[in-house]
């Protein structure tokens, strides 16, 4: 992908007034803005950026997951691009639909990505216990290594080099307000793009190289090994 970086701004965590940063962004006239914030800082950014008119001047891409959209409610910027590891609206299979239905019945709300990922992680652990026939951490780890484990997110591959689940990153757009949603938040439009894991994360070789770099850089036994 070819792009030109025209401006970078780093507002302090927890900043309550970001007008100077927004003005600097606007002056650069970007076509797209990538925002790496999340949680409360992202909520604060969104509200101030909206009052500044930023969403009408450019396309913002950031972590608009369900929790942030729930907090923003009607203030969520329609058309903004969000990314999320497990946006429930993009899954149509029966396992996810059953989970969402049961979650709504118990909690009166749709599940966030954290609820979904947490449940899937427990499913992976339970699968590992069943196949290892043991609660031993080493035995469960060995059973999960390289396995494709069925979860509410589908069969999830756990690669053997670092036991990381090969999850894609979902990218979608914030839906317009319709008044007909079951959710108190304004979630994404139903159609989303799944960015494949092997295109967005480190390969096993890259991971091993980073481990060697960190091992060489981190002091051991109180000795400072920096040059």
Give the gist of this structure:
With 227 residues, the chain is α/β, with parallel strands linked by helices.
What does this structure look like?
- This protein has a domain at 1-85 and 167-195: Rossmann fold, CATH 3.40.50.
- It is 42% helix and 12% strand.
- The protein is built from 9 helices and 7 strands; from the N terminus they run αβααβαβαααββββαα.
- It has helices at 19-28, 39-52, 54-57, 66-72, 94-107, 113-132, 137-144, 197-200, 204-217; strands at residues 32-34, 59-62, 81-84, 148-151, 154-157, 169-173, 193-195.
- Helix 2 crosses helix 4 (66-72) and helix 6 crosses helix 7 (137-144).
Write the layout of secondary structure elements.
Elements: H1 19-28, E1 32-34, H2 39-52, H3 54-57, E2 59-62, H4 66-72, E3 81-84, H5 94-107, H6 113-132, H7 137-144, E4 148-151, E5 154-157, E6 169-173, E7 193-195, H8 197-200, H9 204-217
Parallel strand pairs: 1-2, 2-3
Antiparallel strand pairs: 3-6, 4-5, 6-7
Helix pairs in contact: 2-4, 6-7
């Amino acid at each position: 992908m070819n792009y030109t970086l025209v401006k970078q701004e780093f507002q302090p965590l927890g900043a309550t007034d970001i007008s100077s940063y927004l003005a600097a962004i606007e002056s650069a006239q970007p076509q797209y803005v990538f925002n790496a914030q999340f949680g409360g800082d992202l909520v604060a950014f969104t509200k101030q950026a909206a009052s500044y008119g930023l969403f009408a001047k450019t396309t913002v891409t950031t972590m608009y997951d369900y929790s942030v959209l729930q907090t923003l409610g009607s203030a969520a910027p329609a058309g903004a691009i969000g990314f999320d590891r497990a946006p429930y609206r993009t899954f149509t299979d029966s396992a996810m639909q059953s989970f969402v239905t049961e979650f709504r019945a118990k909690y009166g709300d749709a599940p966030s990505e954290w609820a979904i990922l947490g449940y899937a992680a427990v499913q992976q652990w339970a699968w590992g216990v069943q196949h290892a026939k043991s609660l031993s951490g080493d035995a469960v780890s060995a059973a999960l290594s390289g396995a494709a484990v069925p979860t509410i997110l589908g069969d999830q591959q756990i690669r053997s080099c670092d036991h990381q689940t090969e999850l894609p990153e979902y990218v979608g757009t914030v839906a317009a307000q319709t008044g007909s949603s079951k959710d108190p938040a304004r979630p994404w439009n139903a159609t989303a793009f799944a960015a494949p894991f092997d295109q967005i994360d480190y390969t096993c070789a890259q991971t091993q190289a980073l481990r060697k770099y960190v091992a060489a850089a981190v002091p051991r036994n109180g000795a400072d090994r920096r040059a």
